[in-house]
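Fold this sequence, please.
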Amino acid sequence: LAEKKDKKVLFMDFDPQINLVQALGKASDESKANLDNLMIDYLKGKKINFEDYVIKITDNIDLLPSSNNISLVEEYLTDYLLNKTFSEHKVYKALNRNMVIRDIFEENISENHYDYIVIDSQSNFSLLSTTSIIYARKVIVVIKPEWFSLLDIDYLSKIIKNLERKYNVEIKIVGIIVNAFEKRKTVPKHVVDTLQKKYGDRLTIFNQKIRYLVHYEKSISLKREPVFISFPYAEASYDIIRLFSQVEKSVDSLG
């Protein structure tokens, strides 16, 4: 979609499962360019050239991948703050780890270089997940139409309120995307109806749903390409293109 609309996009993979890396057809170990090395090199005081840590997918798409070793970053951060505590005679708390990571991004990523920066992250209280929310300040929630998903939205809302209070930032939920929707089944319809009744007055629930269609899986597992490239005339492609237009309008309206 970035190619179709001539938008410059940076994808940042904050998920230890590296699903985004695999979805874009890149092996997790094919390069030393990744999120882990960026943060560790920064903490070691090395000079950072951001382009050395990203993988260029196309002329318009850059990827800052994660790896299976991302948990090592927490150890380096703890050591880094301990050293600062001793050298500066100042106590640094656990919450300072989030601010260090945010500073790494703000110092090294030029927002003017990209039309959009998209972060793939899990919705939990982990260091990377909370940092991604603080840095982005705009959250798009993707859920499956299952009853437990409603609890996930409540949980995420609590996380956001907690982060706003701790870090004095304003975080906005852009909207909710319903993924893997099966219109012939009763439960997904009931979940979406409940979603609309419970959150529709305060959150945008995008009308266009991503339906459960086989072309999505084929495009990733077989073609390693976006569905609208692998199967441009499939219903799955039309779903994604229509959804992107709705999301783009909501994101742009928030400034």
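The radius of gyration is 19 Å. The longest strand covers residues 172-178.
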